[in-house]
Specification:
The complex is a heterodimer of chains A (285) and B (537). With 285 residues, chain A is mainly α. Chain A is built from 13 helices and no strands. In chain B, strand 14 and strand 15 form a beta hairpin. Helices cover 39% and strands 25% of the residues of chain B. Classes of the chains: A mainly alpha (285), B alpha/beta (537).
Amino acid sequence: MTNWLFHLRGAPLSARIGLALIVIYAILALFAPLIAPYGESEVAGAAYQPWVAPYYLGTDALGRDVMSRLIYGARNTVGIALITTCLAFLIGAVLGLLAATVGGWVDTVLSRVIDVLMAIPSLIFALLILTITGASATALVLVIAVLDSTRVFRLSRAVAQGILTMDYIEVARMRGEGLGWIIRREILPNASAPLIAEFGLRFCFVFLFISALSFLGLGLQPPTADWGSMVRESARLISFANFATWQTATFGLAPLLPAAAIAILTVAVNMVVDWVLHLSSGLKD
Amino acid sequence: MTKLLEIRDLWIEARSGDDWHKIVKGVNLDLARGEVLGLIGESGAGKSTLGLTAMGHVRPGCRIAGGSIRFDGQELVGANAQVLRHLRGRRIAYVAQSSAAAFNPAWRLIRQHCEAPVRHGVMPRAQAEAEAVRLYTEMRLPDPDQIGFRFPHQVSGGQLQRAMTAMAMACKPDLIIFDEPTTALDVTTQIEVLAAIRDIVRNHGAAAIYITHDLAVVAQMADRVKVLLKGEEVEDAPVREMLANPQQEYTRSLWAVREFRPAPRGPAPAGPPLLQIDGVDAAYGTQKVLENVSLAVPRGRTVAVVGESGSGKSTTARVVMGLLSPSAGKVTFDGAELPTSVSGRPRRLLQRMQMIHQMADTALNPRQRIREVLGRPLEFYLGLKGRAKEARIRELLTEIELDPERFIDRLPGELSGGQKQRLCIARALAAEPELIICDEVTSALDQLVAEGILRLLDRIQRERGISYLFITHDLATVRAIADHVVVMQHGRVVEQGDKARIFSPQHEPYTDLLLSSVPEMDPDWLNHVLARRQAAG
């Protein structure tokens, strides 16, 4: 941990901005009930109010406060994306490292199963499964985690195969070390940098994937606030907006707010990922 | 003779983090036309950096901090890119250590050969190709008419290095820089390449800077030798003068390395040998690499296995360690037959034999601190924990002459090459083994550092009576530490016996070839060997 703090002092400006933005998002998500002026699905006033106090970002078609829903949306969208990514990494990394280290038929079977999963376009596959299981949050998390773990599997297997050619692995094997030690103590510390970088990227993809599913109506279900479904609900407003005055124009900007929230977080995470990638490439030489 | 190259008070700095530190400190260098200058020193002495500046080039991350480099009267420090481009390849050529990495694998040799003369407008392509064939002939490459049309991976390492030298000659340069051109080659190949390089440089009247850490090689190639230490010049003298009468302490220590001879140990103890290999065959897939290999390692003695690369030395070690199962024959350790695979051997058995790898860099996990590197075998084999383990780690570090206070919490990346190899030795010792297999443990190290490692291994053997199976291609090492020598070629044992017997005349033709190919300090050695071989036919 001190190691990371040490690196942080030398971090470039882009990484610092990215980290600051992520911290802001995290605070909003964690303390949503304290920060948001209204409840998540509370009808706060008339529909389609302009951007004036007390509705700083207006209200939606049902009269719910948009700012409150954006803040709660951070909690739902980001929270679920984080859980999904962690699960995807747990499944993908464990199987990938295992396949590379054990090799032989274990590797063959696992790799072929993963190939089959990867051969089906993931959005279509997810839509299919979610239509069968129904769009509950648990189903969403599990389906996306399994689909995304295939990519993590590929990466961790490739990284581990590179590490396995090193003499120190041979030394450990000749010492008589078991599988657990070799994976945890010899491979994992050396594979962590690319895996952390991949975690950031994967998190963005999962996050966009959930938003896309929500937009298609199979993600998080109303009245849960979620950025993807918020874009969908307000998308039509753009064509009805009157951009002559500021008051009426805010009406048309409504769908851009959740979209911007998604975009900014994606950019912020990627800024940090770039920095981690830079660090990990520096550690190799 | 007029001056071709004149370097005055040159300072070069390299960046690490935000700091610049000096790596070449005020070096002067003069080179006359047609003269060959040998640059020697340990790795990190700045010899490659200095060699490259003769082309007006510095590596990325380095800069020239002061001084002047004049090539044929023209100042190269601060010269614009066009002036440098005009000189490089045409009047100054460079031959890199690893020709395999320096050739573009996707292009045929002759196309790469002709690139410089055609691009510099020295000659049209057809003429350049005809010249190439002539140079290939001169470099004694087999089938010179056709070899240029092969890809780099289709020729051997020695041939590729010669093709690269031929390529450097393509524009008939005034100066060629050779950066360790034979370091990666076997002794038997090296001698051919050395002879070819020397002749072609002489015949074309080119000047050369020959960078190497091998003194015996420099003695053959150079007219004059400059010794570098940590970026500073130690001594500069004509080669015969320096060999006969080195002025500086450091130069003398370099010269003394090859004279390390431990006290003789007397005959091997009676009784059965510790390790016995009987008629072992082994193969990688269908490729047979070992055929009927038999050898024995007595207790407390050193058996050296020598041969060129691909002769099956390392494969023999892998069979003994249980990393490769033999297809025939058996390996006996302390009277009992060894299970063929490492997974079939109990921990007590694994503990009794340890291996030290050639590349300490890859044999140490870069994320484990020394405490863990040494602590793990202590815990794993001996069950040591807490204070007892800590105390033993410190003892081991003291034994390999590293200060425990300073080193115990370091990562391998914070150690020098020699220190890493010492750490690998300590890791093997931690298991308290009876047999240690040393796979080319000194070949990646400088001579002075390698000598330190050999002295350490010798001391440990005397103190603990450990047996060594010592795999190497360096006959100087064998001469220093072996009791018994096994010569291998093409996966077979060609000859084996006492060191004294192997190194005395009248042995197998291959042993003879191997022994006579090891460069000696005598500057006339190469001439004598070539003359003798020619006479023999």
